[in-house]
Design a protein that fits this description.
Strand content: 15-25%
Number of helices: 12
């Protein structure tokens, strides 16, 4: 493991930025979110969780897939693939890194999504260990260790230093380009102390002992038909906030935009299962009511996804939906209600 003084963090980030597009947690007013680094960026590694994850780096909110051009009766199609330029994400927390593994299960299964695959292959993830988890965190529910994030490189901000540990070939390659800035970290006591403090804090949080009841997944039809949904959905505003801040939500729509008479651009853009026109077909919409749409979201997270992915839930316990839902109608509330229900 290596280390560098936190006072020299701007120097390190400048060196990393020479290797590709560097995204960092950046403070903008009262919000911290991932942004492209520049010398003027207000880097914020103290904020535990960014407003959104770095999911956009692999699965952009809007991306152009194709352009269709016509010339008389001739049609030409231009596929707009991501570039080969390396992208580096610094300061990614453990929950978000796990969320990318969940997205891999969706986009890298046959048929493989070539856009996602190319971005994923050309991205280096630099994880950052948590030192001050939020009260809404429950990543431990899914076996995630916030104190020891995965990624291509794992880092820790402790005792005035940034500790740096390459973990993959991509991480080692990046490390070689900036190795001259580091010194060898012979004493890892500050890192171990931070890990222990973080794990102790997580155990004491309100959701530190929260777990998903096995019966929710084991009895799909009972869960689907539970009377719980009749009560829970009524508080939902269908604002879609939960889906847009969620690091594992991956629903999208395909839209065409016509900028001129001879050209059509085809875009992919994020969508939400909470929208009334989601999955709408020529005949009708299979989920016509808000109850059905509300139930679909949480059935997918807690039942359908683990059924099809070896028990892996489509949630990483980041707590963003708990913090952002205007009516506190989040996945923890739903899971607890289903666990307490006698008809599940």
């Amino acid at each position: 493991m290596y280390k560098i003084s936190l006072e020299k963090l701007p120097v390190l980030l400048a060196a990393i930025a020479k290797e590709g597009k560097l995204y960092v947690p950046a403070r903008k007013g009262s919000t911290t979110d991932f942004a492209l680094w520049s010398a003027e960026t207000d880097v914020d590694i103290e904020k535990h969780l960014t407003a959104r994850s770095a999911k956009d780096l692999f699965f952009p909110q809007v991306e152009n897939l194709y352009s269709f051009k016509t010339e008389g009766k001739k049609i030409s199609i231009e596929e707009i693939m991501p570039t080969d330029e390396m992208t580096i994400a610094f300061g990614v927390r453990a929950c978000d890194i796990r969320s990318f593994e969940i997205l891999d299960m969706v986009f890298l299964k046959d048929p493989v999504d070539p856009y996602y695959k190319k971005r994923r292959e050309n991205t280096v993830l630099i994880g950052l260990g948590c030192a001050a988890p939020e009260e809404t965190c429950f990543c431990g529910t899914f076996g995630i260790d916030a104190a020891a994030p995965a990624g291509d490189v794992t880092t820790y901000a402790a005792d005035g230093f940034l500790y740096w540990e390459p973990r993959t070939d991509k991480g080692s390659a990046l490390t070689e380009t900036v190795k001259a800035l580091f010194e060898t970290a012979d004493d890892l006591a500050p890192v171990e102390a931070q890990r222990n403090r973080t794990r102790d804090v997580l155990k004491k949080l309100p959701l530190g002992s929260f777990r998903i009841a096995p019966k929710i997944t084991e009895s799909e039809l009972k869960t689907f038909d539970s009377d719980v949904w009749n009560k829970l959905y009524q508080g939902c505003l269908a604002c879609c906030t939960c889906t847009f801040v969620c690091p594992t939500c991956h629903c999208y729509d395909i839209r065409d935009f016509v900028p001129g008479e001879t050209r059509t651009d085809r875009y992919r853009c994020w969508d939400s299962c909470m929208n009334r026109d989601f999955t709408k077909m020529a005949a009708e919409n299979p989920r016509k009511t808000q109850k059905e749409r509300f139930r679909q979201r949480f059935m997918h997270k807690l039942v359908y996804f683990p059924e099809n992915n070896d028990g892996v839930y489509s949630c990483v316990g980041c707590g963003r939906c708990l913090a952002k839902c205007p009516v506190c109608n989040n996945i923890v509330k739903v899971a607890k209600a289903l666990e307490a229900s006698e008809d599940v």
